[in-house]
């Protein structure tokens, strides 16, 4: 057996971190920055070097996909893994990764006056002795999600070098624009023929997240009637007050500042108005699909009541942003239970994470491929304190290999045991 390639995973991670792949909300190109194309093309070449088949890149969705073909005659159902190439909304120019071999658990001077402090970030204690990689104070590192990419390539190289390990078809996908919630919505999954998949995006070893927010946004416009206040009796309709009446009809305690774990909220983002017109923007977030729909209905009914009372002065535009894959995945407990088996085998304690946001998996699940999120081996995502360790990226590679090999054993007799929690 050839072991996981430490230097390969380290070198790939560092070279990908150096590439500026920041995504831009305001840009409508596909993908939203040329740096992402450069990395995606580089990954396309890497999949070729690793001997994958059916590799393709599409300009339409900017996804690279490739297949590690099954090496057994009665293969398990095709399984997929997904990581994203873009980085968050933070300086990504001239990223200079710093390598701290055999990390001693002490504070690290990143540069530019910033310290990665072990008191402030206690998770650093878990990586003492590791080869720790940080940025240098003025940029993010890009561990989100280049640690996911490097771990996935680590698994791929390991399986390609150890052909005695049985596996079914494994599909790999690298995509753009996750941080701005646009990439996976465009993904043409006809190029990714799997039964289910996992994203490897953030999280800690042992995490699994398949319940996310359901999300909608709404804009409510109020039309008033302006007349001279001295002669306003029975005539004036004040749009600003209509907006206030609307807001006071929203549930008082269903707000972000009183919401945690599996609780949702309605957030009034903007409340702008005068006598003539007013506008309220809000978002709705909820894990529970029924309650999410009830909250949308509550907003619709409030508008209806105001229109009945004041005569069609309120307009509502509401649209769904993303949906939690929770309901779909609960109907397919095998997808979660397989991860439980693999984590147990790896000695990882399992944490079910309610993910208080959206993921690429939300969009991919909506296209019919149930896709929970696992983890990627990094920490402190989205800023200058990001870090990853080569050991944790190898742990990711080992975990993915374990999922694939357990899948071969378990797939033929999918147990009907209920969803493990
Ligand atoms: Zn990410």
Outline the structure in words.
- The protein has 421 residues and is an alpha+beta fold.
- The chain has helices at residues 6-17, 34-49, 143-161, 183-186, 239-248, 289-310, 326-330, 334-346, 360-366, 390-411, and strands spanning 53-57, 64-68, 79-84, 98-100, 108-111, 114-116, 132-134, 170-175, 196-199, 207-212, 214-223, 265-273, 277-286, 314-322, 351-355, 378-379, 387-389.
- A hairpin with a 7-residue loop joins strand 16 (378-379) and strand 17.
- Residues 84, 144-145, 178, 201-202 line the site of zinc ion.
Gist of the model:
Helix content is 31%, strand content 22%. It has 421 residues and is of the alpha+beta class.
Could you give the topology of this structure?
Blueprint: H1 6-17, H2 34-49, E1 53-57, E2 64-68, E3 79-84, E4 98-100, E5 108-111, E6 114-116, E7 132-134, H3 143-161, E8 170-175, H4 183-186, E9 196-199, E10 207-212, E11 214-223, H5 239-248, E12 265-273, E13 277-286, H6 289-310, E14 314-322, H7 326-330, H8 334-346, E15 351-355, H9 360-366, E16 378-379, E17 387-389, H10 390-411
Parallel strand pairs: 3-8, 3-9, 10-15
Antiparallel strand pairs: 1-2, 2-8, 4-7, 5-6, 7-17, 11-13, 11-14, 12-13, 16-17
The structure holds zinc ion.
């Amino acid at each position: 057996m050839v072991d996981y390639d430490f230097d390969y995973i380290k070198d790939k991670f560092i070279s990908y971190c150096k590439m500026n792949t920041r995504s831009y909300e305001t840009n409508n190109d596909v993908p939203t920055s040329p740096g992402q194309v450069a990395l995606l093309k580089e990954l396309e070449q890497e999949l070729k070097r690793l001997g994958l088949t059916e590799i393709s890149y599409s300009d339409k969705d900017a996804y690279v996909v490739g297949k590690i073909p099954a090496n057994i005659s009665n293969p398990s159902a095709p399984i997929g893994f997904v990581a994203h190439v873009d980085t968050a909304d933070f300086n990504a120019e001239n990223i200079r990764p710093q390598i701290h071999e055999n990390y001693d658990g002490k504070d690290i001077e990143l540069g530019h006056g910033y310290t990665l402090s072990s008191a402030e970030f206690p998770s650093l204690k878990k990586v003492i002795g590791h080869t720790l990689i940080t940025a240098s104070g003025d940029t993010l590192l890009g561990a989100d999600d280049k640690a996911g990419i490097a771990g996935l390539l680590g698994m791929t190289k390991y399986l390609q070098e150890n052909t005695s390990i049985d596996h079914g078809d494994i599909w790999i996908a690298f995509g753009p624009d996750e941080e701005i919630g646009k990439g996976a919505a465009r993904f043409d999954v006809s190029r990714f023929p799997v039964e289910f998949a996992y994203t490897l995006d953030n999280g800690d070893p042992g995490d699994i997240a398949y319940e996310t927010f359901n999300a909608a946004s709404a804009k409510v416009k109020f039309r008033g009637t302006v007349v001279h206040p001295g002669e306003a009796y029975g005539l004036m309709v004040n749009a600003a007050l209509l907006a206030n009446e609307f807001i006071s009809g929203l549930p008082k305690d269903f707000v972000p500042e009183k919401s945690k774990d599996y609780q949702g909220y309605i957030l009034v983002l903007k409340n702008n108005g005068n006598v003539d017109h007013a506008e309220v923007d809000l978002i709705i977030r909820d894990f529970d699909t029924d309650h999410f729909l009830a909250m949308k209905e509550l907003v619709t009914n409030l508008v209806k009541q105001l229109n009945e009372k004041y005569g069609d002065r309120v307009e509502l535009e509401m649209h769904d942003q993303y949906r939690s894959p929770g309901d779909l995945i609960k109907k397919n407990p095998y997808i979660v239970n397989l991860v439980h088996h693999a984590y147990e085998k790896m000695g990882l304690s399992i944490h079910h994470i309610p993910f208080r946001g959206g993921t690429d998996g939300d969009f991919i699940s909506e296209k019919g491929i149930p896709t929970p999120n696992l983890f990627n081996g990094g920490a402190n995502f989205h800023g200058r304190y990001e870090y990853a360790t080569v050991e944790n990226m190898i742990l990711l590679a080992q975990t993915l290999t374990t999922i694939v090999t357990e899948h071969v054993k378990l797939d033929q007799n999918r147990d009907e045991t209920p969803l493990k929690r």
